[in-house]
Design brief:
Length: 372
């Protein structure tokens, strides 16, 4: 079969049946026009990579998301791809080593390493145009071995370098050490262009004291995963333009609605996996005026949600999933004139739904229209 490619090929997807071939045979009539390279189902070996080099000098997108990359080391000369803007190496929780030459990719805007166990060279901090960094299990090397040993996964210069990524929009990192996370959050105060920050804390200790986000004018989406003693009460703590707030496993004992109702721009609020461990939540009158979506998932102790008249006047979607102690629909819910979608899963509100159905009337008519 003739596998020769057109002369002006710009996008190439390599499947498993081609990876073990000498790819230079496919390119012998092609010029160096390739801009996008996607690989599925196997490792691009040294022989195949070598045959590609002459044809990928202008590459912009390199996606190795479906490769089996365990123990794989990217070619040392990947740094020659100076036009590269998007690099994705996801695999399936494998071990990947990035060569130091990756620091030459000065135009890189997105580096997505997924959940791979990655060795990331210190030269990553040269990516001044980086907007998206995801390295959940990455180990960032430091300039000195001593520094690396003291600070664990992240060298101390991580906290100095993060503020230099001035166009960073999405940062998704995971930590287990509280002091490391606190230092990171403090340093993030200087990164002005963030839009999305996720802070994960994968053990049962408290999240460290968080510094105010009041200067984060571009931070629209904030996720906190881990135990909190309480939410900060001062409205000045929160990003001034916060649109989406996700709380996971925070185990708050005080009703968070009493504080969060004051956030002036909040559109989406998500409370999941015992973000709140109390029995009752109250959305008081005049609160959450911009909120359009509320999601409650696996709040195992929650029994009652009250929506007072004049609260959540813009609410369009309410999801209550597997809050099994919550037998009744939120009080005042059916008075919400803008509500378009009510999604219930598990035994949430089952008793109340059955009672309204049996009674019929206007309440049942309205409920049928919004339930899904």
């Amino acid at each position: 079969m003739d596998s020769t490619f057109p002369i002006s090929i710009r996008r190439l997807v390599i499947h498993q049946n081609l990876i073990n071939h000498d790819l230079s045979q496919c390119f012998h009539n092609s010029s160096s026009q390739l801009r996008t390279l996607v690989s599925f189902g196997g490792i691009i070996g040294k022989k195949s990579w070598g045959s590609l080099q002459e044809h990928i000098k202008l590459l912009i997108v390199l996606n190795l998301s479906e490769e089996e990359v365990d123990g794989h080391v990217l070619p040392r000369d990947i740094g020659q791809l100076i036009h590269l803007k998007f690099l994705c190496i996801k695999g399936s929780r494998s071990h990947v080593k990035l060569p130091s030459s990756i620091g030459r990719l000065v135009n890189l805007q997105s580096l997505d390493l997924g959940e791979n166990d990655c060795n990331i060279p210190h030269s990553i901090w040269k990516f001044k145009k980086l907007r998206h960094l995801e390295c959940r299990l990455g180990k960032v090397s430091s300039q000195s071995q001593i520094n690396k040993c003291v600070n664990g996964y992240l060298g101390a210069e991580f906290f100095e370098a993060i503020v230099e990524l001035t166009v960073l929009e999405i940062l998704n990192l995971s930590f287990t050490e509280g002091h490391t996370k606190k230092t990171l959050v403090n340093r993030l105060g200087s990164v002005r262009e963030k839009k999305n920050v996720t802070i994960d804390h994968h053990n049962n200790t408290l999240l460290p004291g968080l510094m105010p986000f009041s200067h984060h004018a571009y931070l629209y989406d904030l996720s906190l995963n881990g135990m909190l003693e309480k939410l900060p009460e001062q409205i000045e703590f929160y990003p001034p333009k916060l649109l989406r707030l996700h709380l996971w496993k925070c185990k708050l004992t005080n009703d968070p609605m009493m504080i969060l109702k004051k956030l002036p721009s909040l559109r989406i609020l998500v409370l999941v996996f015992d973000a709140y461990v109390g029995e009752k939540m109250v959305c008081s009158s005049g609160g959450f005026l911009q909120l359009e979506r509320l999601e409650l998932f696996k709040l195992d102790e929650l029994e009652e949600l009250i929506v007072e008249r004049g609260a959540m006047s813009s609410l369009k979607t309410l999801e209550i999933w597997h809050c099994d102690k919550m037998e009744k629909l939120p009080h005042g819910l059916l008075e919400q004139t803008n509500l378009e979608k009510l999604s219930l899963r598990g035994s949430s509100c089952h008793k109340s739904i059955k009672e309204i159905e049996e009674a019929g009337g206007e309440d049942w008519d309205k409920l049928r229209k919004i339930m899904c």
